Amino acid sequence: MIYHVTTAAEWKAAQEKGQYEAASLPVEGFIHASADERQVRGVLERYFAGQTDLVKLSIDPDKLEHELKWEVATSVSEEFPHIYGPLNLDAVVKVEAV
C-alpha cells in the first residue's frame, strides 16, 4: 500500500472527473505519495501544517494504471513513491479523514 494526502474538495472533484490529478502532475510530471505512516506524518508536517479537511488515500500499487517509481526526495534524503500519470480511482482502496 502507498498513501497520498489531499483535500476533501480535491478528492470530491476527482470522483466527479473520474480520475485524480494532483497539482504536482502538470508541474513535476508525477503525483507524490508516501510509503508508510511515518512518511505521511512528515508530509503532513511539512506541507499541510494548519490545514483542515484533509483526506489520506490508501492506494494499491498493483491497481495503478500508470508507472510507479521510487525516487529520492532530496529535501529529506529518502525514497518516496511517485505516480507518473493521473491516479485511477479504482486503485484507491480506502479514504480516511486526517
Automatic annotation (TrEMBL):
Domain of life: Bacteria
Positions of transmembrane segments: none
Database matches in InterPro entries: DUF952
Protein name, entry field: DUF952 domain-containing protein
Native source organism of the sequence: Flaviaesturariibacter amylovorans
